Amino acid sequence: MNQTDTDTAAAAPQRDPHAFTLEQPINRGDMTISVVKLRKPNVEATRGLQLATLAQMDVDQLTKLLPRISTPALTEHDVAQLDVADLLKAGGIVLGFLFPKAAGDLQSLSA
Predict the structure, then answer these.
(1) How many CB atoms within 10 Å of residue 43?
(2) For 60-93, how does the pLDDT look when each residue is reduced to its tens digit (9 = 90+)?
(3) Which end of the chain is more exposed for a tag (fewer CB within 10 A), N or C?
(4) Is the preceding omega at residue 72 within 30 degrees of 0, hence cis?
């Protein structure tokens, strides 16, 4: 890699894998939400939810979880009004949070 390549790589913005742009922005009064960032939920954020159905991207489970882990904070009403494509994007990010990174770790869960 030459100096130009290094400069270009360093200058390129890194995309946050936990943030996504909404297909249909959310309007709240004077504020428009067009990008949402999700943080990995801890046990408290998943309290009262069924992890198995959450892992199946159940709409009701996602509607309860997303307000707890989103920035800016979405309401359950906001989530209920999302475009289906946006809900699927959010659900995909949540799925990434729920499963161990290494495939071998899945085997250790059943042992």
Answers:
(1) 6
(2) 999 999 999 999 999 999 999 999 999 999 999 9
(3) C
(4) yes
Return the ∠ at Cα 93 (arms to 53 and 15), rounded to 5°.
180
Question: pLDDT tens digit string along 2-42?
Answer: 554 444 444 444 688 999 999 999 998 999 999 999 999 99
Q: Spell out the residues 6+ positions from residue 58 whose beta carbon is closer than 8 angstroms to its own.
A: 50
Q: What CA–CA distance (Å, rounded) separates 90 from 24?
A: 13
Q: Distances in Å between the alpha carbon of 27 and those of 14, 30, 36, 55? A: 27, 7, 13, 29
**What sign results for the dihedral spanned by CA atoms 77, 36, 47, 88?**
positive
Strand order in the sheet with 31-38: 19-28, 31-38, 70-71
φ/ψ (deg, to 5) at 61: -65, -45
